[in-house]
Amino acid sequence: MVAPGGEARSATDFSQATSNCGACAPMEMASHNDSPPHVRSLPPKSYKFPSNHSGRSCKYAWFEKFTWLSYDYERDVVFCHLCQLAFKETGEKDVAAVEQCFIRNGFNNWKKGIEKCQRHEKSQFHCLSASRQLSREKGIRVVQLLSQHSSRQQEEARQALRAIVSSVRYLCRTGQALQGQTKDDGNLLDLLDERSQDVPALKKWLEQRDKWLSSDIQNELIEIMAHTVQRDIIKDIKCSPFYGIIADGTTDVTGNEQFTFCVRWVDGITLEVREEFLGMYNAPDSRAETLYKAVRDMILRLGLDFHNLRGHCFDGAANMAGRFTGVQKRITEAEPRSIFVHCSNHCLDLALQEVARNCGVVGDALNIVKDVSNAILESKNRKTVYSSVVLPPGNDGGEQDCSGPSTLLLPLCPTRWTVRVKSMERFVENYERVQATLKELLEVQSSLSGTSKTAMKGYEKVLKKFETLLGISLSIALFGPCEQLARILQCPVYRAAGAKEAAEVLCDRLAKLRSDASFDVLWQRTNSRARELGLKEPSVPRVSQPPRRLQFTDKPREPAALDTKSSQRKEFFAAIDRITNEIRRRFEQPGMEQLIGLERIFADAAEGRYFAADDLKDLLGVHAADFDISRLSAQLVLLPTLLRDEGPAASERILQILQGKSADLREMMDQVVRYLQLVFSVPASAASGERSFSALRRVKTFLRNRMTQRRLTHLLLLHVHKKRAAELQLDAVMREFVCRTAERTSTFGRL
User: Fold this and answer.
1) Is the pLDDT of residue 452 over 80?
2) What are the structural domains of the chain?
3) What is the reported pTM?
């Protein structure tokens, strides 16, 4: 017989094709009437078939030869399993009599068993039934094969996507560019090509047309990772009842205004002080009203409560720190409990700049170091001459060849907080080499232009003076302690009240320099060094005669004449007086005084003073609403016991002790912990904002100046928070990326 849609097949072919199908699975000792119609009933090989009246019985060999037979134990008859299934599905009534017994009644003519089975196997209805079952089985297998192939492709696509996501994360963490000059170039493609040698699925993925590496895909992956990092930070901030903000502005390489936003808080679990960068805002202008709206908008978008703001730290610019319309004034009006602190590092730097402008000995020293260092470092030829200078024999009797990298001059940047002293010390160490370099440059006629040559002559003349070396030495003595404080104030865990205390310590340290003994030590050290360098002896300054028209006497006195040492000591003492006065003036801030008052409560309570609830409420002022006053009063009584034999009762010490205590004790002292979180939430310095500017200059360069503000912020988040980015779960990033569209789900499957 010929099956519809196919070539002629024998019944044996169909039986063999269907013998292994799932519908023909054997079922031992099952009744035909009780078995489901789609299940074939096959007797066990050891089964003893009953005999009929003629002594004949069914044979087990027939079930092996005709795999479509099914046995009915109760009636001792056999059926065609395939035809029964087809009859049930199609309900055909025109079935030959020979098929009726194999479908409805059952066959038991054992004498003609093989003959009838062979005849039924060749019948049209049986062939159609077998063909239908074979087609169904093939369809199932094709679907299975397609499903397996699709699953394999999705698994390979997921492996490639994982490599892509991890590569994007690596480039973002290190601040490298992803794209190149064209879409087929760039660090991302180069990195993926290198990694494809170890990831076969990635190699196959990169060879196909759709690689999912467009700029839009890159931006989306970067956005997902950046938002995850940002949400993790916000989650940590919300565990603390209070927070402070740090904001500052700068211009990027394209001249656009960039407004950075950082948050400071005390972790609610570990009690660690944290400062984190949260984003960069492209403000349309730098007016105070615009920047205030930017601050409110960023706080709102980040999901923070503005009424939990307890501190804001800005620089001294009028638009930020203005007393009448500045951003700090607007924030204080909106939330009176937020304390403003003028950045401690900026205050110290402004004090040093004031000294440099008004004290000639300091200003001249800084200018000569800056100008000479820049003049040598800005030219490759001059640097070569400087490095190749061989100094005359020293005390060891040999030539001094100091061409190593440690002898290079350091540029002096007037706005950097911690580089002035290093630059001046390096200049003094290489004073003789600098003189030799200037001399050699002036001897070569073609090495300098007219203007540069005039400047070099002036530098050479100034460096031969004793006063120049003395001025640099005095500046190092003045700026050294100040830079140590500047370095400490940049630490994120430093509190604002501690900055005021450190400033007082610095003033005391500088006051000790204001003595004849200290100046004599500096003078003798400089004089000894000047003799080694062969500098000119210090000259007595010319005495200025006052105009006669201003002398209201007939016998005017001669003006007092000071020798060089006395004159320099006078200027040195004047510089000390000015710098100490400037530091005290700039650190006398209402916000710092308020914080010192809050911390004084801790110190008094640790010494055993009892604070009644009403007294404590008056001392806290606007912050009284932040606490349960009665409980805080009771818990302050426990401070002496908590600090027993633990040293002075400073806020940092109390915080360190509570960090080492159990969670139960912290819960018992919850109001004290809350008090510490308030005190330490107020920033002392805007150093975190300055560090974000450094990251901005690394990410947005001259060659990468066309990126959008959205991409820039996301890249900065991943670059600044390298550790958090490294801890991102790639599966979660991939899951969020894939679930956004149905096409991605079809390509990568469900994660």
Assistant:
1) yes
2) 11-140 (no CATH), 219-343+686-748 (3.30.420), 348-391+403-539+563-587 (no CATH), 592-680 (no CATH)
3) 0.77
